[in-house]
Design goal:
Length: about 280
Amino acid sequence: MRLVNAEFRKLLTTNTWWLFALGALLCWAATFALNATFAHFTLTQAPPTDVSPEDAAQIAAVSDQIYQAANLYTSGQFTGLLFVVLLGILMVTNEFHHQTATSTFLTTPHRTSVISAKLGVAAFIGVLFWVVTTALNIPATMIFLRSEDLPTLLGDSSVQRAILLNGVAYLLWGILGVGIGVLMRSQIAATVTAVLAYVLGTAVVGFLFTLLSQALDQDWIEDIQYALPSIASGLMVAGRDLPGQPEYWVGAVILVAWAVVTGTIGTLITRTRDIS
């Protein structure tokens, strides 16, 4: 617990946490506004008739009230997870950037305990981000749905599942951030790589696998993109399984695997790597 308290003190005595929290709140507001606008037009407009059966099934699934409600109740996940993973990265790379890692490991020679404390604090911070965004999402979504003369659907099991799994995603991305920070000790390299891989990689990889799947007429190729943590996170909070996509629990399994692998490898590397 002393190590955990020390990690909290390291985090809370700098400006990083509240700057990231402010950025996450601003991005949440923008995301919720976009999701609400999309939901308004999706739920009120009649679906097009001159489309293929596959596209019609996709449009019908997206237009489902449960799907839109789950999307609204988990608004801000994409940008929120980015801030959480960056905080996890900085919890490790700050030690090397400011050259405090040596004193940290001299004070506590048990490196596994130090990394475990960082993993625990990062997971807690991730859950805290989820609590705040969910506390904002629930009343905002209820007000929006009421304004559209729709039920809040908060009592629906699929919506509740999406909200809870969203919390699991935040927790796991905190752990993932620490794992990335241990693997790449350079603060600039780790943060830049994480941002580019998260933002650009999500869009580019999904587009490329879709094109490759259509070119080779192999549907299983398109499913490979769900191995990416960012895409898996979105999959696990979907209120409805969309046609052609894996079920929500697949995304949860993939994200857990990423967190376990990066956390374990990072801990093992730290135990044997020279610090100075």
